[in-house]
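Figure 6 in text form: structure in, sequence out.
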């Protein structure tokens, strides 16, 4: 993570502490986390922050008709442990309807298990920005492994300029987004992480309806919106949907914009994103 703050810089420690706490609480892999315990016992009492995240994850699951689904963990484990041949996905434990919340108690149905890898970084950035807002820092920019979120105007008077990674050369950018003020920019791409099975690469964004890595014309999706949690959930969900469904989804609402990089290297941007895109050629997706 990279965190930069202008103004009350003593807030830096609080923010990095918050992000570390969230990671330690929400990781499905850490044996000491809230989520690890729930996944083992299928039931447990969790912190207010964990309840908040689960509620948000459930909300975005329903909004995206299950393209985003935090009960993906059993499938992640199946893919991760396959050595020579791809697994036959077991869809039985998958479905956000398998999560129930009662006060601060979480219960999972049968073999279900939680993974907040698709929303956790965005949630951490969003909570950090909320903390910084309370303390009235002048401006801030956070970058959590590809998730960028800004707060306020850049103090030198210039615009924020954030690169979108080139899926075929991830250390370089294929486009730049320029804007003033607060915004979250979150990218999900098939180039970021993958499992190697029998010499083949299988990327890490899974379609909850099929159990297989989402395969369509997209190489990456970048979401631009005010809320970091939403940006992260939607980046994963729209990657699963593919270009056509994702464009329809965007037309059905008014709370985000998106930049799609296709496998052939072409770029498509929703009308709001098109106004901010620099250093590239692109096609505009109209309402
Ligand atoms: P990254 O974490 O690489 O920046 P994403 O935000 O797209 O990218 O999250 C991908 C991670 O989310 C996967 O590694 C996995 O843990 C989890 N995941 C995969 N598919 C889904 C899905 N359809 N819904 C929710 N989470 C998912
Ligand atoms: Mg995501």
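Output sequence:
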């Amino acid at each position: 993570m990279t965190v930069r703050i202008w103004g009350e810089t003593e807030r830096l420690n609080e923010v990095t502490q918050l992000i570390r706490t969230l990671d330690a609480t929400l990781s499905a892999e850490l044996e000491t986390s809230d989520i690890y315990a729930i996944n083992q016992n299928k039931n447990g009492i969790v912190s207010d922050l964990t309840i908040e995240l689960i509620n948000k994850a459930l909300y975005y699951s329903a909004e995206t008709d299950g393209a985003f689904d935090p009960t993906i963990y059993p499938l992640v484990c199946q893919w991760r442990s396959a050595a020579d041949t791809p697994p036959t996905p077991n869809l039985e434990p998958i479905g956000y309807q398998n999560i129930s919340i009662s006060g601060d108690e979480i219960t999972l149905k049968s073999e279900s298990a939680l993974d907040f890898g698709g929303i956790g970084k965005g949630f951490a950035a969003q909570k950090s920005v909320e903390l910084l807002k309370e303390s009235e820092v002048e401006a801030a920019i956070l970058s959590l492994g590809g998730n960028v979120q800004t707060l306020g105007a850049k103090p030198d008077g210039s615009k924020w300029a954030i690169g979108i990674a080139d899926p075929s050369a991830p250390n370089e950018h294929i486009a730049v987004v320029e804007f003033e003020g607060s915004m979250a920019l979150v990218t999900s791409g098939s180039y970021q992480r993958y499992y190697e099975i029998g010499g083949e690469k299988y990327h890490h964004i899974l379609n909850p309806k099929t159990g297989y890595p989402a395969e369509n014309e997209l190489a990456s999706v970048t979401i631009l919106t005010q809320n970091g949690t939403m940006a992260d959930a939607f980046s994963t969900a729209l990657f699963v949907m593919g270009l056509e469904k994702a464009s329809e989804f965007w037309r059905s609402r008014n709370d985000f914009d998106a930049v799609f990089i296709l496998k052939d290297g072409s770029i498509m941007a929703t009308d709001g994103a098109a106004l901010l895109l620099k250093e590239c050629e692109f096609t505009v997706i109209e309402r």
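Caption detail: The longest strand covers residues 169-179.
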